[in-house]
Amino acid sequence: MVAIKMSLDWVLExxxxxxxxxxxxxxxxxxSSLTAIKTGKSLCRPNTLNxxxxxxxxxxxxxx
Length: 64
Description:
Layout: H1 2-18, E1 23-24, H2 31-39, H3 46-58, E2 62-63
Helix pairs in contact: 1-3
């Protein structure tokens, strides 16, 4: 989940700088992270999950 959050941080910075980003797709092979994001439940990193949700809401691009 930390890598996903870092990716979203990068997207936020890049989109602010260049304003060219409209759609973003992030790939991950971490089933536990993807499940946590989908269900909204994380036992080991709930703060990181909340930050991911906040970034997705804040970024003005479509994140898939």
